[in-house]
């Protein structure tokens, strides 16, 4: 199954004009089947959208403002880091956010968010039926529409326990662009600068969940990993986006490494210099590993190798044996014990499995989303536009400092 997943990903990354020169015979044999499936997906996509357009499927409006963070392609677009960034911004301003996430792959993203946001006023709801989860948590904690606005009446018992600051003031819909059952006030779309649209085909032949015309629904677009491509490539991508929606505000972000956590004791923080002049094996099961690998390569490691698994891959003991074999090969070739580096999502998905790599050191790379100043687009201007949209759509009178 992993071979098929890798092959499908390779096909999705390869333009049709290059298939014969790039793909293997096995991969080429999958193309006709994937093409049929992609056509059926396109029909289902249009039907679903029409059902919502004509109110045959219901859109639910939550009693608090909703910000959707989504994308047009699979994985590696920075949705979860953006959700974390927004949650911290709201919490720092005294607004308790509710994060609604689907919970793919053993809810690794939810576990990561819970760990990263520990200690701040945030609620996280995990599950496919995000409407029902939101209703339950809004009932449990109450909600407030603005600092001076209305709030849901709670029982006297709950009012004694929960202050107004504990009540939910905004909902953040993680991976929400295609989750049409929830009405949203702001639509933020994330784009992976390293592979924005792949081969421009719909799933499963390509990486697109929707055609590029869906960008017209976006209120804000963020080009993520913008630091890993050339400026002229950034300009070309921006130009392509503006052909779809000329007035769309576009921002640029990167993942800024902060420190490493050793798996043996994640309460301990290590400097980024921990990989200086080291042989490093990047181990990942994320949507797009290239950005992770490039980040480690920029840190001054002597040599960087990598083992990539499919997105949300749950590491098992048989995988650990493969990893251990690669580590032994690297140790033999370079004469020193290599170290393993994983992403936070990979760690939170299977921390106990990674312990089986002893005596090899396993480090967790911790990073945060950072806005890049480009053509007048900054973190402050992003916040300003987001709140303008909230005021226009939901009448919210708050302002984020």
From TrEMBL:
The lineage of its organism: Eukaryota, Viridiplantae, Streptophyta, Embryophyta, Tracheophyta. It comes from the Eukaryota. The keyword tRNA processing does not apply. This is tetraacyldisaccharide 4'-kinase. GO terms for cellular component: membrane; mitochondrion. The keyword Signal does not apply. GO terms for biological process: lipid A biosynthetic process; lipid X metabolic process. The chain crosses the membrane at residues 20-44. Pathway: Glycolipid biosynthesis; lipid IV(A) biosynthesis; lipid IV(A) from (3R)-3-hydroxytetradecanoyl-[acyl-carrier-protein] and UDP-N-acetyl-alpha-D-glucosamine: step 6/6. Coiled coil: none annotated. It comes from Sesamum indicum (Oriental sesame). NCBIfam families: lpxK. Its EC number is 2.7.1.130.
